[in-house]
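Structure tokens please, single chain.
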Amino acid sequence: MFFSHWMPTSQTWTETVKAKLGATVTLPCQLEDSIIGHRVLWYKADDEDADFEELAGSMGLHEWTSKSFNNRVYIQKISDNDASLVITDVSKDDIGRYRCEIINGEEETLHDYELMVESDIPEGVVFPYSPHGGRYSLNFERAEKACADQGAVVASFEQLFQQWEDGFDWCNAGWLNDGTVQYPINKPREPCGGSQNGPGLRNYGKRNKKTSRYDVFCYVSKQNGHFYWLVQPERLSFDEAVQACLDDGAEIAKVGHMYAAWRLEGYDRCDAGWLADGSVRYPIANPRKNCSPTEAAVRFVGFPDKKKKSYGVYCFRPEQ
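Here you go.
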């Protein structure tokens, strides 16, 4: 029988546990002494305001689990003092509060957990940007416009920090939306803040938004549309590339479209193509010989002469 339950606490502590989507997670629940002869109950509450509902339990050889978990949970009992809960194939529905209650007569021992489920798929991507005018040419207002022109916004410190934790390394300083100028370093070296300093975000602090000139870090989330390489029999000039996408019922893709497709969808193509800002780039999600052999990246070819017919084109078709 499964029911809502509230319990007073006698010995209790709370811990946050993080698990990856689809992984297996263990919520520890142990005593210093044996739990043989004790009653063990596990409870779950979906959020802070909800009541705890019985999830699993054991008493001697008798064990039970909630049918709502479809046989994905069990009490592992790898030793006489262990009553840890194992959840397999973790899903977003598993997010919530968990409580282990071990009862021995009138004494209770409680372990509380907050389970957070993380996806390996990020919600967005930070990318560095400098326009055709060259490096360190943007004041803050122009930086905002540069990101907007590429279907993005100026990144926040939190967004840049999260991507730095994922390995982002870039040696050019750029604006963030709080008016500071920073850059992420994972591989310390002399030209990038010195080889003696550890990895981290190098911070120039707040700069004059009107007179200071830097690059910018933009942020783009998943796009509502289709990013693709347009197959063409011949290479195109920039104007021809723009028209080719229009003729295909789409628009020439922006830099933000390419980064979103590369980072969030794993888009991979080893063909350099025009983008809306007049740059030529190509996205590599699977590094290989002659195609960004050392790392997954959006490769930047440059801002070539727009009349030059040496490249293909990437298009973007918004969802209707």
